[in-house]
Amino acid sequence: MPGSKSSFTAVTIEGMRMMLFTHPLNFKGRWLRDRLQPWLTDNQRIYNVGQVSIGDESSAYISVLYKDDKLYCLHEINSNEVYSLVFARLVGELRIIKSVLQSWNKWDSHLSSICTPADPATSLSERGCGPAVTTVGLVGFLSHSATKNEWEDAYRCVNASTANAERVTNGLNFAGVGGGTLWPVGRQGQNQRYRFANYVFTLVASLTIHETPQAVAPLLGASLDSSGDKKLLGLSYDENRQWQPIYGSTPVTPTGLWKVNKKYHVVLTMENKI
Prior knowledge:
mainly beta, Jelly Rolls, four-stranded antiparallel beta sheet, 1 helix, 19 strands, Sialidase_trypan, Trans-sialidase, putative, exo-alpha-sialidase activity
């Protein structure tokens, strides 16, 4: 942003190597900088720690220091062209950062320790474990907690909104017109945390269809438009119990059959916008 300076600091907190950086927002327009916010990233996930400036004060320049398990910031304030410097210790912000890193480590350890059957067709006593769930490149995971209107990201970065959702074991049950969830990984106003999703991503969902629809119904999709209506790619299911792939506006022949109350793992992948 013209006329402003962000701060980038490599740190080791909770035994994890991270990058702390700061960035001002621009709610006032006219290239004014306000609402200074520190961010945390491990080069996979990005977490917004909060706001360190007060209100909408103009704060264009900031530096961050982490030393002896203490976090400090030095930032400028411009009030009617009168400039001041503020030096503050970020006690609450460091507490949040440690809590988030603990969550990241907890879920990485949990997911990588899950035993996936090497051969699901064999008996429980003979299955053995297949390859561990990889957490390299994993930026979000919707599973453990949800409310009527929100499905929480276990990594605490970008939550999903829900409609007509009921909490069930290991997930949500969607019913009725408009039932579903929207995960806005590429739509977050001025701060686009996961811009890579415009070019490359893999989306994985475990799901079960409980009844046959009366017409083609959407199941899982990815969209680059703001409304979420124009699917870039996805998968629907129809009244003939066939899968209906979606590749933009290109007509696609139905493929394969699905069964009621059977669990499926659906994977959508895009590389280089393909």
